[in-house]
Amino acid sequence: MERTPRLRPGFRFQWEPAQKAHVLLYPEGMVRLNDSAGAVLKEVNGQRTVADIVAILEQQFPDAGSLADDVSEFLKEAEQQHWILFP
Amino acid sequence: MNRHDTMPAGDRPGIGPPLWLLAELTYRCPLQCPYCSNPLDFAQTQQELTTEEWTRVLRQGREMGAAQLGFSGGEPLVRQDLPELIAEARQLGYYTNLITSGLGLTEAKVNAFRDAGLDHIQVSFQASDPELNNAVAGSRKAFDQKLAMARAVKEAGYPMVLNFVIHRHNIHQMNDIISLCERLGADYVELATCQYYGWAFENREGLMPSRAQLEKAEADVNTYRQRLADDGSAMRLIFVTPDYYEERPKACMNGWGSLFLTVAPDGTALPCHSARLLPIEFPNVRNSSLHSIWYDSPGFNHYRGDSWMPEPCRSCDEKGKDFGGCRCQAYLLTGHADNADPVCSKSPHHDRILAARKAADHATAGLEELTYRNANNSRLFFRG
Ligand code: SF4
Ligand code: SF4
């Protein structure tokens, strides 16, 4: 929880109005993110720890209960996908 | 490397927006690769679009939802306005890719592009050693320049994407190629077996690997990939195998007019970069907006949906998966662009693929017998 994820070099996260979704852009590729993936990656900036991100999201979605497991799980998957790294 | 999940809706029912825009800035190029995908008669191309015209195209594309932008060619570096176009594209919100041979690149340019907002530079190589590389490229100093530029790209903080076009004269080099990429610190390595359009179709007999060569290469790549995984390396290997050894065609361009829009140097808008060879009239960005080109032009609507399909595709339950394959390949190999891509074993023309495979088993032509891509050879192909 104390680790600090950041996007892999060359990856860009942005909102695409035409797709009404957040996307991850990288060399010659693009992933369209669903709402929850978008909400998590939005907070990944190389400064916030996983715990920070969980706290922010729990504040944003007070009805969702504890988000620690979901967020950790998603970040693990994002790391396996080579979208983010934990330096 | 393209990944898309469910498609967003566009401005017409059933037609999504062009998410990918390829700007072929010029057909000019200092190299002469015999597998170049540029049209055979490129030397006849009329005036290139101006900076203002390209800027308009970029704006219109972005408004329609395009997010990935490729600058290619020819060699895009010969355009003096490249930094300006990069800055404009980045400011519009594109993810900008520069696809270059590395010739004409300097460290200063690498950094200037970075400052203008370029996201990624892909440097293409012809082989893992200077002799073969330079022979294929038709240039004596290409290899050292490429190495230097690959290093400069990495240094400047870009993701490093190296591209090797694979054919029968370098397919035995897989291990050397990958280990060169590893030493350079590449993030992605594209090992792209030749696709037979443009100059590559003309040179197919001299380029196509045999099945035995291909299987050996695939095994080499898989072994290497395993080793990278064991080492915890983040370098990704993308091996594009030739569809001539498949029994089903590729879902070409993810479907005609579904994601990709190419604008050629003279402003001709195309659903893919080789579609120019088809006997179809394509619109030009000089006379129409990108929006009307994409949604309303006969050229772009020609092969949308599946009502144009003859048999065997028409009644095939796989047509939603591969869209009948590639129109250019159907045209080049059967003379009719509507036909099923002959790669498909259900195609009545599949024998042409089998014949090409057989020829590849016995081919003996050396590199010197290939037709190199240059203006003199191009003029020979002009049929106008
Ligand atoms: S394939 Fe070779 S000849 Fe063709 S544009 Fe690229 S570098 Fe130039
Ligand atoms: S017959 Fe046509 S639609 Fe069916 S698999 Fe072959 S190419 Fe695809």
TrEMBL record, chain B:
GO molecular function: 4 iron, 4 sulfur cluster binding; cyclase activity; iron ion binding; oxidoreductase activity; S-adenosyl-L-methionine binding
Top-level taxon in the UniProt lineage: Bacteria
Cofactor(s), names only, from the UniProt record: [4Fe-4S] cluster
UniProt keyword Oxidoreductase, yes or no: yes
Pathway assignment: Cofactor biosynthesis; pyrroloquinoline quinone biosynthesis
CDD domains hit by this protein: Radical_SAM, SPASM_PqqE
Subunit structure: Interacts with PqqD. The interaction is necessary for activity of PqqE.
UniProt-recorded name of the protein: PqqA peptide cyclase
Classification lineage: Bacteria, Pseudomonadati, Pseudomonadota, Gammaproteobacteria, Pseudomonadales
UniProt gene name: pqqE
